[in-house]
Design brief:
184 residues, 4% strand, elongated, two-stranded antiparallel ribbon, 2 strands, mainly alpha, single chain
Length: 184
């Protein structure tokens, strides 16, 4: 059995909050810089670029460790989303009394030139969380979960995503600080 695959050039998100977690200034320009998915995407690329250099140096070795740590953080988050989706599936049934179609899609971009394995994992995390939120809304719409349960599940997913984005940011900052110290 072959898996159905499709190539994406942009991310379509169906939740305003998730959209602003990807790109903090998507809906309105903000002067304050936030840690968002797009910022993490660029930071991950920077670390990965150092990790793929052919030279053997302390910086390259540390970049490989940092890149591996980032990949592990993203894998943990993917497993969390997968487990929550499976948990939701146990709460719902196949009977769809009210047809549900997600509304208000927001298209966000990413630089395909900077697409690396860890960045692909980050994009997939956002797509997986979006799918999970759509399924939550569908379950709420069809009476499988209450609005309060839907909000609690959604908020928990956002919290985990923000924690991981901050952890990834710290890994990237730590790498660049140590890299710069090596140059001095």
């Amino acid at each position: 059995m072959t898996k159905k695959t499709h190539i994406i050039n942009e991310i379509i998100l169906h939740n305003k909050r998730l959209t602003t977690i990807w790109q903090h200034d998507y809906f309105k320009s903000k002067a304050i810089k936030h840690i968002d998915g797009l910022f993490a995407f660029n930071n991950i690329f920077s670390v990965y670029a150092y990790s793929t250099r052919k030279e053997t140096s302390v910086t390259v070795a540390f970049a490989r460790k940092a890149s591996e740590k980032i990949s592990n953080e993203l894998a943990e988050l993917r497993l969390f989303v997968r487990a929550k989706s499976q948990e939701l599936n146990t709460l719902t049934d196949d009977i769809e009394l009210l047809p549900f179609t997600p509304s208000n899609p927001h298209t966000v971009a990413f630089d395909r030139e900077k697409l690396t394995p860890p960045n692909a994992a980050l994009v997939k995390v956002f797509v997986a969380i979006d799918n999970y939120i759509v399924e939550l809304n569908k379950a709420r719409f069809n009476g499988d979960i209450s609005p309060n349960e839907c909000e609690a599940y959604r908020n928990h997913a956002f919290k985990q995503l923000n924690i991981k984005l901050n952890d990834i940011h710290k890994i990237c900052i730590n790498f660049h600080q140590i890299r710069k110290e090596q140059l001095q």
